[in-house]
Structure formats: C-alpha cells, structure tokens
Amino acid sequence: MCLGPLIRVCYTLPCQCHRLHKMAAESLTSIKSSDDNIQIVNQLLLPHTTEWLEIDTIEQAHDAIKTMKIRGAPAIASLAALSVSQHLTRALRAADPPPEFLSSPESLAAHVSTILDFLFTARPTAVNLGAATRRLSRTLQSSVKAGKDVRAIAEDLIGDGRLVAAEDVGRNKAMAKWGGDWLAEQVKGGGGSGDGLNVLTVCNTGSLATSGYGTALGLITYLHETGKLGRAYYTQTAPYHQGSRLTALELKTLQIPSTMIVDTMVGSLFQHHRIHAVAVGADRIAANGDTANKIGTYNAAVLAARHNIPFIVVAPVTTVDLDVADGSGIPIEHRPPLEACVVRGALYPPSVDAQGNRAQAAVMITPEGLDGIYNPSFDVTPAELITAIVTEKGVAVKGSDGKFDLSNVV
Ligand code: MRU
C-alpha cells in the first residue's frame, strides 16, 4: 500500500495523520518480539531486501550485533536484553529435564552473569549495551539478595529485559520534543513561519537504530510532524552507508522532505544552503560532553562551528557515561579493514542463497590486498563543538564557564 498521498492529505487531519504515521513507522521496525520470539530485520540487506532473521540463542544475538545485522546504540541494547529474556523464558518452560543452571539461585546467577559478560563484548563503543547488561546484572543481584527462588529471579530478569526494549520509544519521543521545541525557539524563522528548519544529520538514528521513532532522526520527525521542518539533509555515511541505505529509507517512508549528500559535501552544503542545525545521535557521551558517534560526525561538527551552525547531540540517558571523564576514555571500535574496501560492508565475500543466487554481492572498490586501511567506526566530537545535548530529561547547554553540566539531563 502506498502511504504517500494519504500522508500528505492528512496533514490537515491530525488523527488520521497520527494513525498513518504509526503505520509507516511500523514498517521500519528493527526488532519484533512477542513472548519468546524475536525477529530482527537484517540491516545489512536494507533497503533493497527486507529479510527477517529469527534470533533463538544468545550466540545469535551476539553475532547479529557484532556483524551489524542490527546496529544503532539503543537497538543493540534492546536486542541484548530481549535475548536474555528469551533465553530464560525458554529455560523455565523446558520441563524435562530443566536446565542445570536452574538448580539454585547461585547457579542461575553464575549462568546469567556469564551471558551478560558475553553480550557486553559484542561491540565496544555504544555504552547503551553496557547500560542494559549492567541493569540486568543489578536486577539479578537484588532478586538474589531478596532471597527469591529461582523462578522468581528468572521472571524478574525476563520482565526487566523486555522493559529495556519497551521503554525506548517513549523516551525517544520525549527527547525529540525537547530538542525540537528548543531548536525552533533558538532559530528565528523556525516554528511555523518562514520555510521551516533545515537540519543535517549523520548516520542512521531513526526507528531502525532504536526500538522506534529515533533520537536525532526522531527530532527531525518531530519537527516535520509539527510543521517546523523545512528539509532534512543526511550524509551517506561511508563505509557502511547507514545514511544512504537506512536514513534514506526511513525519510522516504515517512514522506519527510529530504536530500542526501555525500560525506565530503558537508562544507559545500554549509556554504551554499541555509542549514539551521546539525542533529546527531551518540554512542557514548562522556561526563564533560565529549561525544562518540559515527565516523564523520566530528568533521560535520568542525564545519558547523566554522559556519556558526548549532550542533545538537540527541541521545537517551543510557548513552551518557559519567564514569568516563572525557572523550579520551571512550573505547573506539575499529571495524575489519575489508569493510572499508567494499560497498555492502560485511557481505564480502557475498553470501550465496540455497539457489546459488549472489543477489547481495558486495562490490570491491579498492585493489585487492591493500595493507594500509584505517577503519575506525566512530569518532569523538569535543564538547567545545557541541551546542546542546538533549536527553529524555531535557536540554543541556553550556554554562558561562563554557562547560556542560549534564546533571540535569541524566
Ligand atoms: O555503527 P552503527 O551503525 O551502530 O553506529 C550508529 C551510530 O553511530 C548512531 O548515530 C548511534 O548509535 C545513535 S543511534 C540512535
């Protein structure tokens, strides 16, 4: 069903609009889960192929995160937490014989701790994954300490794992509203008059990167829904092309006016077009506001500062890591060098389906056997280049000392 014309018509019909937006957004789901079933959309194959993968084990969840079949800081945390819920739900149902680790609270605690440690290793930079595994670890400890039996401890963990995923959408909508209203207020000409706000984003931070709605892309969606957006701009985001593959798909599905640029065009865009703000997500925000996000974010921040364009980071509280003082303490993931040599990343060499089709063949864009390839997945934007940090709790700007105080937004 084509939603495009209906969505345009319904701008004057708020109720219908909400319903149709919901339908469009649902088609962009990264994870479907009910009871003990989990499916993820294989983000390596989007936008041309929509393949749903069953996740049945902790190992499959770990692999899906590591190989970026699912990606985006909140989405990987949700999958990790849901996979723990699934594992324990199935264990409680496995009657004859029940798994050995259900024999006592101690053995359950040891088993779950091993699983959480393993999931934590899937990707190093996004702190949301660690926040989710730490949260489940705390639930485990307090249930054991409360003297609960094995079943009750497992049920607490199952419930909490599901909550990690379920809570994401509401907080995304909250931060989108905080950030969108704040930006419209800051920028003269935004907020209903003039041509609306033009906002550049990097990578993909929408429904596919979260449990729904998105962070920076949520802010853009909110501006669109409230009639304050002029146009969204987004970088292709090499080498994984989260922008041209995923953000493009999301903006197109939601019928949000948008323009893609190649990563190297940010400076040119700022020179030749009125851009009111840059809004990006984050994988980890240090206590001083330094922010790790997709490679290329720092370039955009430097250019935004040069052009006096507000640079906004939009991320949930779980992305703020107060244990890390500044960006130098954020671990930066380096992806396999080969992923920078191909279009379609991890699918090289291409997978072959049962019929022998190589439909998703990766294309090599370098000579074979290059020995010098630098492929960090993230960079760190220093706090001095960031205008505002938005979480579900509100908007933090720098004080008169030029420093962020994140205590009000965590
Ligand atoms: O390597 P990825 O695709 O997982 O990187 C994603 C990003 O950098 C996002 O900007 C970040 O995780 C925030 S997603 C709401």
TrEMBL record:
GO CC annotations, alphabetized: cytoplasm; nucleus
Site for Transition state stabilizer, residues: 203
Keyword Ribonucleoprotein recorded: no
Catalytic activity: 5-(methylsulfanyl)-alpha-D-ribose 1-phosphate = 5-(methylsulfanyl)-D-ribulose 1-phosphate
Compartmental location: Cytoplasm; Nucleus
Family from the record: Belongs to the eIF-2B alpha/beta/delta subunits family. MtnA subfamily.
Name assigned to this protein: Methylthioribose-1-phosphate isomerase
Species name: Russula ochroleuca
Lineage: Eukaryota, Fungi, Dikarya, Basidiomycota, Agaricomycotina
